[in-house]
From TrEMBL:
Keywords: FAD, Flavoprotein, Isomerase. Its cofactor is FAD. InterPro entries: UDP-GALP_mutase (IPR004379), UDP-GalPyranose_mutase_C (IPR015899). The keyword Heme does not apply. NCBIfam families: UDP-GALP_mutase (TIGR00031). It comes from Rubrivivax gelatinosus (Rhodocyclus gelatinosus). The lineage of its organism: Bacteria, Pseudomonadati, Pseudomonadota, Betaproteobacteria, Burkholderiales. PANTHER family: UDP-GALACTOPYRANOSE MUTASE. Belongs to the UDP-galactopyranose/dTDP-fucopyranose mutase family. The keyword Protein transport does not apply. This is UDP-galactopyranose mutase. It comes from the Bacteria. Residues 149-348 form the UDP-galactopyranose mutase C-terminal domain.
């Protein structure tokens, strides 16, 4: 083979397809028994399409990324909406990201857009410089909204306080003065019409690609090849030489509700301050599937020392970034191994960002090969 790719998620599969179309022979291995990585979806026992590892909502502003993926799927237009229940004893739900509806409903006000902007300016706590996620939130919406919607959720999700996380985590969630209740505002928002797994099956269906699932990297590390693209945890690749990079894990509680056609008014409801779970997602909103029952998943964050825990999120703060830099220095010295993806680059990638990075890497590798003189 020319290239061994470790991991059959977006990073590995997109790289594999692009290299295969350039004439390379590619072997893709994944330790899980399926392709699609964390985007893997399946029909549950009741026949409802569910996302095994929590909701994956596709959104992008990149016409090129959306167009490239459109070769392997048709799309169902879908704009994700999220409600948050800051106090489960009342059950009152408010739009998230915070918008005009959130503020008017929460405080019994009737503000227009200018009024909401003035309200936020009045309650915000200016922070300079902005370093942490606490700085971001307090600088944007002030202390009361921070305590109701952000601090508890962050503590559950990351096992850290807002003040212990890099600012980029909270900066992902905007604040709006209008009534736009979409979670994302990207130009392209859609779900693969037949699901992610089917998209990946088409993506990997190329005569130059061989896929082996249920295979650990160690089992194929000795195979002869020109190069390796590794999409797993970078510290694992190097035997945790400098110590384990911290990752946050999740436990997923899937449940089918027979006879319940709809549990929630929107796809996801957050519970920032109550319960062990951070959010509940109802999958029929995402897929548009018609079914007499409904299936949901509760996400319960956990540490990596929990039984069966897998790494899902790099934990961005200065200490962890410094540790990653030591591994990155090893990676930069490699000439035949390339690291790509959320775990390999210790970066909080969205799906479209991973696709763009994979396309860029594959095209760079192809260009390098073509530039080499013929033997």
């Amino acid at each position: 083979m020319d290239t061994l790719i470790v991991g059959a998620g977006f990073a590995g599969a997109v790289t594999a397809r692009e290299l295969a179309e350039a004439g390379e022979r590619v072997l893709v291995v994944d330790k899980r028994p399926h392709v699609a990585g964390n985007a893997y979806d399946r029909l549950d026992a009741a026949g409802v399409l569910v996302h095994e590892y929590g909701p994956h909502i596709f959104h992008t502003n990149s016409e090129s990324v959306f167009g490239w993926l459109s070769r392997f799927t048709t799309w169902r237009p879908y704009e994700h909406r999220v409600l948050a229940v800051p106090d489960a004893s009342t059950g009152r739900a408010y739009p998230l990201p915070i918008n005009r509806t959130t503020i008017n409903s929460l405080y019994g006000l009737d503000l227009d857009e200018a009024g909401v902007a003035a309200f936020l300016e009045r309650v915000r706590e200016p922070r300079e410089p902005i370093r942490t996620s606490e700085d971001v939130v307090l600088n944007s919406v002030g202390r009361d909204l921070c305590e109701r919607f952000f601090r508890g959720y962050t503590r559950k999700q990351w096992g850290l306080d807002l003040s212990e996380l890099a600012g980029g985590v909270a900066a992902r969630i905007p604040t709006r003065t209008n009534d736009d209740d979409r979670y994302f505002s990207d130009r392209y928002q859609a779900m693969p019409a037949e699901g992610y797994t089917r998209l990946f099956e088409r993506l990997l269906a190329h005569p130059n690609i061989e896929v082996r699932t249920g295979v650990e990297y160690a089992a194929v590390a000795g195979l002869d090849r020109r190069r390796t693209v590794f999409t797993g945890p970078i510290d694992e690749f190097y035997g945790r030489r400098f110590g384990a990079l911290p990752y946050r894990s999740l436990r997923f509680e899937h449940e089918h509700l027979a006879g319940t056609t709809q549990l929630q008014p929107v796809g996801t409801v957050n519970y920032p301050n109550d319960h062990a779970w951070t959010r509940i997602t109802e999958f029929k909103h995402l897929s548009g599937q018609q079914h007499a029952g409904s299936s949901v998943v509760r996400e319960i964050p956990q540490d990596m020392d929990a039984p069966g825990a897998e790494p899902y999120y790099p934990i961005p703060n200065p200490a962890n970034e410094a540790l990653y830099k030591r591994y990155e220095a090893l990676a930069e010295a490699e000439t035949e191994v390339f690291f790509l993806g959320r775990l390999a680059q210790y970066r909080y990638y969205n799906m479209d960002q991973v696709v763009a990075a994979a396309l860029a890497l594959a095209r760079r590798l192809t260009a390098q090969r073509r530039a080499q003189p013929a033997p």
